[in-house]
Amino acid sequence: MIKSVESVAQEFLTPQQRCLKTPNPVKSKPVVVDKGTTPTPVEAATTQPRFCIEEHPGDQPRQIRVGVVGAGISGITAGILLPAKVPGINLTILEKNADVGGAWFENTYPGVRCDVPAHVYQSGFAPNTQWKEEFAQGTEIRQYWQDIARRYEVYKYLRLQRKVLRAEWQPNEAQWKVTIQDLRNDKIYSENFDIFITALGYFNTWRIPEFQDMDKFQGTIFHSSDWDHSVPLDGKRIALIGNGASGIQILPEIQPVAAQVDHYARSRTWIVHPPNVEGDWQRGLFTAEKLESFRDPQTYLQYRKEKEAEFFRGFATCFQNSPENDFLRQMWTASMLQRVENNTTLLNDLIPDFPPCCRRPTPGPGYLEALIKPNVELIRSGIERFARDGILAADGVERKAEIVICATGANSDLVPPFPIIGAAGLDLRAAWGADGGLYGFPYTYLGMATPGFPNALWLGGPHVVGPSGTVPNCMENQVTYIAKMIRKVRGQGIRTFVPAKKAADDFLEYCLAFFPRTVWTGNDDLTPGKANCRSWMNGGRPNGFVHGLFPGSASLANYARRDPRWEDWEYTYTNPSGNRFAYLGNGWTTREMQPDADLTPHLKQQDHIDLKSYLEGWWDV
Ligand SMILES: Cc1cc2nc3c(=O)[nH]c(=O)nc-3n(C[C@H](O)[C@H](O)[C@H](O)COP(=O)(O)OP(=O)(O)OC[C@H]3O[C@@H](n4cnc5c(N)ncnc54)[C@H](O)[C@@H]3O)c2cc1C
Ligand SMILES: NC(=O)c1ccc[n+]([C@@H]2O[C@H](COP(=O)([O-])OP(=O)(O)OC[C@H]3O[C@@H](n4cnc5c(N)ncnc54)[C@H](OP(=O)(O)O)[C@@H]3O)[C@@H](O)[C@H]2O)c1
């Protein structure tokens, strides 16, 4: 039986699907439909035209709304790069704080500063040649990020003092419904986004552990990330709990003013000798002459490249028993010994059994020097309980304290601080939670997304950074990946995208095979005082799954994210027919609709042509 394309179409379509009007009907040849045989793909395409031409140019992007939660370095970077890389993007950045900066907005404790040189802890595209100190103080870092947020007009996308309470996937709309609390008036409202991106940071959900009898303590307690500046420290007996990077920075600041500091540090830690830092590295002020030299772009670029290269070259140190790791062990042992004026008793209690880099190494200017002061006691035993006016440690000694500073870090399980309910009604918190969660750790595809959570992307989340490289560079690469994803989604009629489970499983399998080579796996000897390397990289669990780092170097992380593997994602399409080419629209491009538009952007002056990028730009096609 011979049928026309049109009549076949009418048979296959429901009334709603039938095209009401078919402009410029295709003068197709009749096709033979033999009900007895399976049609070839081409025949299927021509015999099942459940699809109507969309009346728009093929390159016209679909309007979609993108919501980002968090305006720390990641959120700011998204606010700068996404509008540049996805022109016309409808972007909203929700931030609970009164201004941007994230970690650098909230952490105002005395001594807060970066522990990597400021010249590598800045954006790649808007460097500051005039950092005052090698390890810039928190205020200068905060001002820098707020300044570039202003310069690149991030504020127009920002909704400050908006706390996200919940995000829930709406399958019918293919959108995320995000419930928000306006902290200015406590009103609760919701907004829908086609794409939902979290940029919540690793350390934003700071936490004070539930120490026994803490409620009985009559003195003042606060967390280092929530510093109470109204509390005078002069002449006080202070308990400082924690020797992570925060505790290490705080000790040298409070020791000179306090009557006594009892420093509760239940784990040993490496204190880094900073490489190639000139002059007085404790404060590391740049000389006026040096700063002047940085005004020359070539000189500055050279300096910056050398500094940053040290961080990109650092990968070898993370392998178990590597010569590079052994070298650090020897170097840091010697420098620590020197800095505590050869007090071997103290050092025996502090130098770890576990290898360097298992916990994040930190230079801690002044930390070891403060430890040997007469008004400081290092207490390595854990905390038994609080008393009315002090702390009883596991060593059986009760020490008086008027102020307790908890430099006890954050929830390193990376479980989000609010429900994120995915396609099957599963809460990401229940999926990732270490205590009985579906996976029990952050289960992701390349750290960027999770099966079952369509149209959701994680920025600065699990596996984000390589152990080498720098955080800002990593964020910029991750945002660039996200920009590519958004361009694809809005440009190719994609309704939903989600990583395939098999792809996430393969990534997990790779992680599980790779990390045992590194210093973050193992080191879980439970003998008191022995190895026990616990850090946010292994979720605070010795030998726990390493979700804090990318399984590979920073350079490799950038390589893996540079060209997205589109085949690892599953898609549905906006066109009711599901036709993936529906986005081609009416066959025209937008430029062709504009009489004066340049239709030959591919033609360039010959000496401006770089064959590597020739015909690769999404912007000039
Ligand atoms: C004190 C400190 C010092 C550090 N020093 C260094 C360093 O020297 N070098 C280095 O490489 N790294 C350092 N880090 C790590 C640092 O976290 C990252 O380098 C970087 O700042 C992370 O940026 P982010 O935007 O991903 O996260 P964050 O800066 O943590 O920002 C997350 C944002 O999300 C917002 N948010 C969270 N929940 C919600 C919600 N429900 N609704 C709305 N908004 C929400 C928060 O308010 C915050 O602004 C440091 C961290 C801390 C805490
Ligand atoms: N620029 C910087 O120098 C800087 C400054 C601050 C933070 N940071 C970044 O932020 C990360 C987090 O640093 P952080 O110092 O805030 O947190 P952290 O590294 O997680 O350290 C938390 C500290 O609190 C201790 N602690 C936690 N719970 C405890 C309990 N119940 N009893 C006794 N001690 C307890 C931990 O001991 P255990 O180790 O034994 O668990 C650890 O010493 C750093 O790794 C770094 O990446 C950087």
Automatic annotation (TrEMBL):
Gene3D superfamilies: FAD/NAD(P)-binding domain. InterPro entries: FAD-bind_Monooxygenase_sf, FAD/NAD-bd_sf, Flavin_mOase-like. Keywords: FAD, Flavoprotein, Monooxygenase, Oxidoreductase. PANTHER family: L-ORNITHINE N(5)-MONOOXYGENASE-RELATED, MONOOXYGENASE, PUTATIVE (AFU_ORTHOLOGUE AFUA_3G15050)-RELATED. The keyword Flavoprotein applies. One of its GO terms (molecular function) is flavin adenine dinucleotide binding. Its cofactor is FAD. It comes from the Eukaryota. Belongs to the FAD-binding monooxygenase family. This is Putative flavin-binding monooxygenase.
